[in-house]
């Protein structure tokens, strides 16, 4: 029998029917049997799904170009941090770092890249993929705990067992070889879910990573107490006394590609909020009255479901974005995902988007194979944008991935994609891969890009290449 199914059934016997968000949390992030905790083979065309970074290096190269422009808009500061949530196998980070080093040397000298990943298999893969940049101190692995669907404290901060509450990025100076214990994970009853990776989420357990050894990276000029980026970015096994945080004067670009779609959601219908029960080795759906928070979410950011209809309430994603926005003093957020606005829901679209994915096949049954299939839901960008704006950030009009990449690439006619091509057939192959990233038939129209900023002049933000496709004539 599926061991994760047994574990969930045991919890239901002990505690009664559980919220769907709890079921989704355990399926994805259980430290022993969760989908993103077992291995690093879910990604890519040979796995269950692939992300834009799996298609071609040009995705990372184009976004590196946008990062560099953001750095210049910020005044070309001596130091800047790019923080990637859920970096998966590290392919995007590798493309950004390698291309920046080659094409934007001044930006590269200022850049420090933080990969927030808690899945042990993926952290191991990242340490191989980014070995050179990790050893030089240009890149750093960090882990993260964040608010749990199981949390009963009134504050959105969920206290993980054995780790004091902190709201700062913290990195351990210990080497990976010295790590042995793991932080308590979100999939346990006492803590919140671990950070999902790239597409869509990953990891339940953290481990410490190699320390920064690059010039000027560990000193007070870059890593110093006081810089808040998100809820408890902390290296596993480190304590507040032996960790350092980003200095407050260092601007940040926080990047999340296919991250929010895998955060646990509540499922709501006219019957209330979905609960999962169990009987005779089968999961059963029951309903409980919707909470005030769920009803407020529908009033503000979504639609109230019609009879026979279900919608997702992304309470955790909204809470998480609030933390991110509240902890950035100056910089940008870029969130790329498949999703929708409230207006689209009101028009009858994106209602009941929950799905399970396995070997590139989509199923509507999230109960079929717990821990062996991905579970995702389309992102409510209206709620995410509102969460950023509550904490002083300014959001730009939502655009498609196609508009974003076309805006960045049109200035040099996508030379970033074809630079390494030597033969006509190589150019033809790359052209097909680029087409998949930007056309409606591929990923171009199904993915949207949310850009938010704080402490940057509005006209400079609006002029960013990724936001100006089709508007250059104005």
Notable traits:
single chain, 474 residues, alpha/beta, Rossmann fold, 5-stranded antiparallel beta sheet
Q: Brief overview, please?
A:
With 474 residues, the chain is α/β, with parallel strands linked by helices. Helices cover 31% and strands 16% of the residues. It has one domain: Rossmann fold.
Multimeric status of the protein: single chain
Helix-strand makeup class: alpha/beta
Q: Compute the number of strand runs.
A: 18
What is the CA-based Rg, rounded? 21 Å
What is the CATH class name? Answer: Alpha Beta
Q: What fraction strand?
A: 15-25%
**pLDDT averaged residue by residue:** 76
The CATH topology corresponds to: Rossmann fold
Q: How does CATH name the architecture?
A: 3-Layer(aba) Sandwich
Distance between the termini: 62 Å
Low-pLDDT stretches are 44-55, 146-244
Number of domains in the coordinates?
Answer: 1
Structure description:
This protein has 474 residues and is an alpha/beta fold. It is 31% helix and 16% strand. It has a single domain, classed as Rossmann fold, CATH 3.40.50.12710. Strand 12 (355-358) and strand 13 form a beta hairpin. Helix 10 packs parallel to helix 12. The termini are far apart. The model is unreliable at 44-55 and 146-244 (pLDDT under 50).
